[in-house]
What we know:
It contains 5 helices and 20 strands. The chain is α+β, with helices and mostly antiparallel strands. Strands 12, 14, 15, 17, 19 and 20 form a 6-stranded mixed sheet that branches. Strands 4-1-6-7-9 form a 5-stranded antiparallel sheet, sandwiched between helices. A 4-stranded antiparallel sheet has the order 3-2-5-8. Strand 6 and strand 7 (78-82) form a beta hairpin. The chain is globular. The relative contact order is 0.17.
Amino acid sequence: xxxxxxxxxxxxxxxxxLLVTATISAADYLVYSVVGTAKIYEGSKTVALNARxxxxxxxxxxxxxxxxxxxxxxxxSKMYSFTTEGTNTVSALLxxxxxxKNLSKQYLSYMVKQLFSKESKNLSHPSAYMQATATSYRxxxxxxFLLNRLASMAEMTASVESSLIQPKxxxxxxLDVRFDLVSCETGEPINPEVDxxxxxxxxxxxxxxEPLYVNVLDIDERGNKYxxxxxxxxxxxxxxxxxxxxxxxxxxxxxEFSEANSRETFxxxxxxxxxxxxxxxxxxxxxxxxxxxxxxxxxSYLTK
Length: 304
């Protein structure tokens, strides 16, 4: 009887080991963000890939030009970004990906919780002087650090906004980021003088070694503001993530130059951590306190 028990234990240990090995070889990855165009094979067909989808190393993805898929490895607390264009398995994409970003277990837990919250699915373009309500893992004061940094870039004029859009005011960026506006019709960057009713989208290049969260603020000569990329009520910013060392196009968020003879200045704002970008719709004021490391890039257009 003892020999049979011993044999049963050995068999149980062997089965457990095989199960663990199978689990590791087919590890799960949670889709955190999709920017641009990405699809996943389901049988012989492809369907759109969206955040909150679970992948294995065998999953086959189709990633479009200037697109990115960012996934979370919850077991090892790592974040990977896939930017390789074409059809590949997750296993191949992992091999081609740059070094993953390490996450603390506490922050990873927060990210996953927020990703599945109802508020994270509610995307909107805030109206002027309105802010999305967000409860977050970071201290609420962190958002004000971004305002402090932007205010520090401004000269003492009527407002921070009016200073930021002045060509003579040279802006000092902490992060190497830039963008251009691309015509929806031609797929080419638009000229500084642009025809009214031109439809375009934002294309962002992140030249740093860290993934960045971005948005673009449009300010016209009268001080009217428009946040080009939508924000989510949970302020996860997952849909605004631009992986390190790549260019992504936000084709799903086109907009139109709707007013003739108008000069509009677009400010790309980038941060290393999520912020509630809707705060940019309120008057930008600093309090002289701590600042957040931020990237900023400015381009002005005149409609004809």
